[in-house]
Description:
The protein is α+β, with helices and mostly antiparallel strands. The protein has 2 domains: 12-118, Rieske [2Fe-2S] iron-sulphur domain (Rieske Iron-sulfur Protein); 134-321, Naphthalene 1,2-dioxygenase Alpha Subunit, Chain A, domain 1. The chain contains 5 helices and 17 strands. The chain has helices at residues 160-165, 172-176, 269-293, 309-320, 331-341; strands at residues 12-18, 27-32, 35-41, 47-51, 66-68, 71-73, 80-81, 87-89, 107-110, 113-118, 149-156, 184-189, 194-200, 217-223, 227-233, 238-246, 252-260. A 7-stranded antiparallel beta sheet has the order 11-17-16-15-14-13-12. A 4-stranded antiparallel beta sheet has the order 5-6-7-8, with no helix packed on it. It has a 3-stranded antiparallel beta sheet with strand order 1-10-9, with no helix packed on it. The two termini are 26 Å apart. The mean pLDDT is 93. It binds FE2/S2 (inorganic) cluster and fe (ii) ion. The site of fe (ii) ion has 5 residues, from helix 2.
Amino acid sequence: MAKPPLSMKPTGWFQVAWSDEVKVGDVHRMKYFDRELVAWRAQSGRLTVMDAYCEHLGAHLGYGGHVVGEVLQCPFHGWQWNHDGRNVCIPYQDRPNRGRRIRTFPVVERNESIYIWHDVDGRAPYFDAPDVFASFGDGSSAADYYPQMRLYRESLELHPQYVLENGVDFAHFKFVHQTPIVPVFTRHDFDQPISYVDFTITFEGDEDQTIDDVRSGVEAINGGLGIAVTKSWGMVDNRTISAITPVDDRTSDVRFMVYIGRRPGDDSARAEAKAQEFGDEIIRQFTQDIHIWSHQRYSDPPALAGAEQQGFTAIRNWAKQFYPDGIGGSAAEVYAQRGRAE
Ligand code: FES
Ligand SMILES: [Fe+2]
């Protein structure tokens, strides 16, 4: 894959771990957005995500740093840092260094995931991370579903925008996922940082059916470029979360989560096995996409069929707002300028 012409430092909420990977007292190492980071959980359960390096002499807090009550203690000289990244104790001096601060990131835990807010300009969050249940406003909760099933693929050469573009790409369903007929989009709403896409789709029947016969579909909510949640209707009840997080300027980590609905009153092992099978199938379909994305080159401007124009133009214009240069969604403009300058 060519290095994407789109910025790998977009603004928004991005998944950096699952909540159960950072238990009370744990210090968890991560690399995202080209930064070494740690996530640590205080005795109270409060979670902090911050830069990994101690502001004293630069020890990496992920190698031997440990949680002491509500603070993180550096392994090198024992300086202690709090939830805000402030130094609160130098063990061999009567006062802490009040001026120094380790960069911390706004963090939320939702749907068993840890999301951080990333913004190169340090702006506060201006939209909310979507919730696979609450965001659909239908009163559903995790209790209505079997436990979350997960896929985790590390350091793939792909950009988060490729994944979201699936949300307007009706033609790929037939070729990548072998749906019998091409789905039809019924909603494209790209007015806000949270966008909405609905489509009618079926995985059953043959090529002879028409889309008007189809009584099933998917509703998707994209929270910026990092997180998308979906809800199905008219088929086996399932919800999904896809979360793509840039690691450096070439690669991203991909996390995909699936929930299969419980059938009220049926707690049988057979129903659970069926759910497991169905969840595996949805994950398998997502890996078909990953296979394409991880070798794809971003095409801009793309050659589009007439029916693709509207959706791709809308999503690419929408994506621009998340890039530091404000033009990432249309790299062609950059190339055009460069061409003139040369
Ligand atoms: S480097 Fe962290 S306390 Fe010295
Ligand atoms: Fe897909």
